Amino acid sequence: MSRVYLYILLMAFVTYLIRALPLTLIRKEIKSDFIKSFLYYVPYATLAAMTFPAILSATDFFLSSVIGFIVALVLAFNKKSLLTVAGFSCAAAFVAELFLH
Amino acid sequence: MNVGSFKDFKEGCRDAIPICLGYVAVSFAFGIEASKIGMSTFQAAMTSLLNVTSAGQFSALDVIARNGSFIELAILQFIINLRYMLMSTALSQKLDSKVGTLHRMGISYGVTDEIFALSVLRKGKLEPLYSYGLIATSVFGWVFGTVLGAFSGQLLPHRLISCLGLAIYGMFIAIIIPDTRTSRALLFVVLAAMGISTIFTYVPYLESHISSGFRIIIVTVAVAAGAAVLAPVTDEQSDPQGHNEEVNRA
After folding, report:
1. pLDDT at position B248
2. Radius of gyration of the CA atoms of chain B, in A
3. What's the complex ipTM?
4. How buried is B79 (Cβ within 10 angstroms: 0-12 exposed, 13-18 middle, 19+ buried)?
5. With an 8 Å Cβ cutoff, is B69 touching chain A?
6. Which of B72, B64, B56 has the alpha carbon at shortest distance from B38?
7. Cβ contacts of B109 on chain A, cutoff 8 Å
8. Contacts of B135 in chain A (CB under 8 A)
9. Which of A93, B19, B75, B115 has the fewest Cβ atoms surrounding its Cβ within 10 A?
10. How close does chain A come to B3, measured CA to CA in Å?
11. What backbone torsions phi and psi does residue B126 show, to the nearest 5 degrees?
12. Degrees (nearest 5) of the Cα angle A18, B2, B90?
């Protein structure tokens, strides 16, 4: 049973190192225009890649996921807040699933 | 040294509510899976509290279930979570250079895709207290969902869980889409990342040989590097302002 705790601690250690090394070691402003531009684009690329196509299987039904996705896109495009976009997206899927079940 | 105020902490707590909801849904599933392979509720909760990484934790269950080697687990976590290194590097640029090592170590604990997204788009410098607010709300949801899932897969109606799964993606969309209205380069970045990610997900050989963690790393590096070469940003651009007013109204 103690082996499970060793697994947990080991993965926590590796994951923490990955997170902590850059944050604690890089103190200065990065001067390179390329690196600055690269870092500026990183979150958009990462989040876009994580969202699509994974969002299509976020709920039990492909159709309710698509509906939630479209609602989120429309609201976000109209600059609604994070909570509004996330909330209405879930609500739209929930309503859609009432008909799908 | 600008570590922020209690107001920043509260703002962080509030901004992370969508993360919290999404995390409850995702970690609920993790809790169920963890109990399936024989982990206790306490072990599942401890895993979530110490790791706070969805892809990493799910992949670890597989290794733990078949008593895999420690080396394998370490390498797997390293690769799947390598993207956090990119995010931490980006965050290091958001901090005042005078922010001390202890605060940096504190913020490091909570570098996840979702918390990173909110942190990096915060207007101006990132205050450690704002990060702690994000972390408090998010980790609460992550551990709470794990406990619920591990304790009983029957506590919440399944239909609700199914729809809550959209919360995280809805939040991602709310973060990346508004800025694509004003920047053609960002629109291109978002579309390219989604397109390449789709190819990696559905093309047979790629789909079976590249894990989801690696897929995200490859897409991020390729698309962000390509955009950095084709459309280098100036200093004013790299501090998106319009978006944060949205966050503050949330």
Report:
1. 37
2. 19
3. 0.86
4. middle
5. no
6. B64
7. 16, 19
8. none
9. B75
10. 15
11. -90, 125
12. 30
